[in-house]
């Protein structure tokens, strides 16, 4: 077994504290998402052994395609898991952009298909379809995308939402970028089972994750397909469990109760089934109001729901010593997960902490492929962390 570890590129900014917003709401950090800073995160992720960086999409962050394209020349092996929103550009253009990216980057593009969970945000882009219609359109869109990449000839498609005539590409992507896809609604499951290469879930307790994997696996089997599976989590990993939970307490204590209340009110209006499941983990903020100790928000061993008090989307973190975090990753891997998309505050420092603390443990356990690190990589990251402390 060799798990694939991915990091996150915060194109809305970064911070040492929990950041408020996302998933259709405005979001900004006190470390601006300049290209220089994002390149530093890319370098940290690359030297720490991450395969790719997930890059978000939305009105609250910088454009994923443009940002990652500008980072190709500052990295060597790092791949870019770029968010793609069907419906905001034609499938033929998206297929062409992917082919160009693969050619210029020498095959370092992965795609994360984001159907769009918030009606109000979609309308700002001129998309007036409801949630179920967006998933139906997404299926047609991905059908065209895959046909174009197959290169078997001109594509004609006349669906309810997508229409193309005599569409073809001058250059085919090499390799074809794998499609990552997340969603917890029945409509999402249908599309994922037909077109995704990797199904992604946000971080829920192992029993809930196992149930989601079984659900998608059954749907894919009907289609005669086999998928990979992944999970999106934040991480707070330290030398000791006490240090990690102390950091979770620090993040929690920096929150203003009014900010939490406002964030929960906004997130409760979300049309996303995945967001609803995130809110359920901490009772829509009730666990926070009943006690301000980080441990009150531990919903499963080392799984902390505190991030979701103010952040939309992925709202849980693995909190613990490097050994404990490795234990939890191994536990999720045993369920059938192949991909772990991780992040932490700040993303620059936490990439190094995970790479130096958790990854060597996973390597010793045979869960990830050992890698050769140059002396420059080792001295550079160690010196950075020493200064950061």
- Topology, number of strands: 13
Number of domains: 1
Radius of gyration over alpha carbons? 20 Å
Distance between the termini: 35 Å
- Give the overall shape, derived from the CA principal axes: globular
Largest sheet: 8 strands, parallel, barrel
At the fourth CATH level, what is the homologous superfamily?
Luciferase-like domain
Query: Which regions are unreliable across 5 or more consecutive residues at pLDDT < 50?
Result: none
DSSP helix count?
15
H/E element sequence: EHEHEHEHHEEEHEHEHHHHEEEHEHHH
- The share of residues in helices is 40-55%
- Averaging pLDDT over every residue, what do you get? 92
Beta percentage is 15-25%
Structural class: alpha/beta
CATH topology label: TIM Barrel
Give the CATH architecture.
Answer: Alpha-Beta Barrel
CATH top level is Alpha Beta
In spatial order, strands of the major sheet run: 1-2-3-4-7-8-9-13
What report would you give on this structure?
This protein is about 45% helix and about 15% strand. The protein contains 15 helices and 13 strands. The longest helix has 20 residues, at about 130-150. The model has no long low-confidence stretch (mean pLDDT about 90). The chain is globular, with a radius of gyration of 20 Å. α6 (about 185-195) links the parallel β7 and β8 (about 200). It has helices spanning about 35-45, 65-70, 90-105, 120-125, 130-150, 185-195, 205-220, 240-255, 255-265, 275-280, 285-290, 320-335, 345-355, 360-365, 375-389; strands at about 5-10, 50-55, 80-85, 110-115, 155-160, 165, 180, 200, 230-240, 300, 305, 315-320, 340-345. The protein is an alpha/beta fold and about 400 residues long. It has an 8-stranded parallel beta barrel, surrounded by 7 helices. It has a two-stranded antiparallel sheet with strand order 5-6. It has one domain (about 5-235, about 315-389): Alpha-Beta Barrel (TIM Barrel), CATH 3.20.20.
């Amino acid at each position: 077994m060799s798990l694939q570890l991915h990091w996150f590129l915060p194109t809305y900014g970064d911070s040492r504290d929990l950041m408020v917003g996302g998933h259709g709401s405005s979001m900004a950090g006190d470390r601006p998402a300049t290209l220089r800073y994002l390149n530093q995160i890319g370098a940290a992720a690359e030297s720490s052994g991450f395969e790719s960086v997930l890059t978000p999409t939305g009105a609250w962050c910088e454009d994923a395609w443009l940002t990652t394209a500008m980072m190709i020349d500052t990295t060597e092996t790092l791949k870019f898991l770029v968010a793609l929103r069907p419906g905001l550009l034609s499938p033929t253009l998206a297929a062409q952009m992917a082919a160009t990216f693969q050619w210029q980057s020498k095959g370092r593009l992965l795609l994360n298909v984001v159907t769009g969970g918030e009606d109000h945000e979609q309308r700002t882009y001129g998309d007036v379809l409801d949630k179920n219609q967006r998933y139906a359109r997404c299926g047609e869109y991905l059908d065209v995308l895959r046909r174009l990449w197959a290169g078997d000839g001109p594509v004609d498609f006349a669906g309810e939402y997508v229409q193309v005539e005599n569409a073809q590409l001058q250059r085919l992507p090499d390799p074809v970028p794998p499609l990552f896809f997340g969603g917890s609604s029945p409509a999402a499951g249908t599309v994922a089972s037909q077109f995704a290469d990797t199904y992604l879930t946000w971080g829920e307790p192992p029993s809930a994750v196992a149930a989601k994997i079984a659900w998608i696996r059954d749907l894919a089997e009907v289609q005669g397909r086999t998928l990979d599976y992944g999970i999106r989590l934040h991480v707070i990993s330290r030398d000791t469990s006490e240090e990690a939970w102390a950091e979770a307490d620090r993040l929690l204590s920096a929150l203003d109760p009014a900010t939490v209340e406002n964030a929960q009110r906004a997130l409760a209006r979300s049309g996303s089934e995945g967001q609803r499941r995130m809110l359920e983990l901490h009772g829509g903020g009730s666990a926070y109001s009943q006690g301000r100790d980080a441990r009150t928000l531990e919903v499963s061993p080392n799984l902390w729901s505190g991030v979701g008090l103010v952040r939309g989307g992925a709202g849980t973190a693995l909190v613990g010593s490097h050994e404990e975090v490795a234990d939890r990753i191994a536990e999720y891997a045993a369920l059938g997960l192949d991909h772990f998309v991780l992040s932490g505050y700040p993303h620059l420092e936490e990439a190094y902490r995970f790479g130096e603390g958790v990854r060597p443990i996973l390597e010793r356990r045979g869960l990830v492929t050992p890698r050769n690190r140059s002396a420059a990589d080792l001295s550079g990251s160690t010196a950075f962390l020493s200064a950061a402390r």
